[in-house]
Amino acid sequence: MAHIIVLGNEKGGSGKSTTSMHLFAAIARCGHTVGTIDLDLRQKSFFRYLENREAFIERTGNKLPMPVREVLDYSAKDSVSEAQAEEEEMFAAALDRLDQKCSFILIDCPGSHTRYAQMAHAAADTLVTPMNDSLIDFDLLARLDPQTGKVLGPSVYSEMVWKARQLRASAGLKPADWVVLRNRISTLNARNKRRVGSALGELSKRIGFRVIPGFGERVIFREMFLSGLTLLDLRDTGEMKLNISNLAARQEVREVVKSLNLPGVDVSF
């Protein structure tokens, strides 16, 4: 069966689509066929990124890997129960079609709580939660005591992941490898950075996730969107010079992929 990777966080702007694109590029460069689903049915940032990539390929003739895409939509049923049942059928059918063609399936979830997102979290073999390195973003994972900084208990997103884990367990599936990706970590030893790190360390032991460093705050990640490129494509396309900052960002991508321990995916790219 295809290995399912889900990018999930109920807060927008955490870097889910950027992470999805770079994971796709890394996995594809290891020779795997990758299936993709964008569950942000309103903004569709992940699929917009891929559309820009497709246009770049047509415009320049560069041979870059592209994934298999499955497009979903909301049910038009009036009844809530009927709509939910139809969306479950559509989601399961999309996964089945991709499973027949692909070694990996990448699912980018919206920055909100939807039925599709719930189903995706329950299907995940690897769950990646990108978060900006701030107490505002941490609040989706857990509630903190404002005076002591101690974790009081899980918050809304962690509770949703817990329910998804229960569904997996009831289906006889092994628990997902839950990885929290700390993006935009400050280079300074700031108080906020220390508090977030301490809180993540405490919470990870209580509810079972791993914490790994993610991507820094770099202009290059925003610049590549319109061309649909990733840092792993720049050497082949010659679109941008690999300066020191870009090389450092590329190394961040390598470290993220390495830390995820995906089957059959190395960091020789």
UniProtKB/TrEMBL annotation:
Enzyme Commission number: 3.6.-.-
* A Pfam family annotated for this UniProt entry: MipZ
Give the keywords, sorted. Hydrolase
Query: InterPro entries, per this entry?
Result: DNA_Partitioning_ATPase (IPR050678), MipZ (IPR015223), P-loop_NTPase (IPR027417)
Keyword Membrane tagged: no
Indicate the transmembrane segments per the record: none
**CDD domains in UniProt:** ParAB_family
Top-level taxon: Bacteria
Q: What is this protein called?
A: Sporulation initiation inhibitor protein Soj
What Gene3D superfamilies does the database record attribute to this sequence? P-loop containing nucleotide triphosphate hydrolases (3.40.50.300)
Q: Which SUPFAM superfamilies match?
A: P-loop containing nucleoside triphosphate hydrolases (SSF52540)
Report a single Gene Ontology molecular function.
hydrolase activity
Q: Which residues form a coiled coil?
A: none
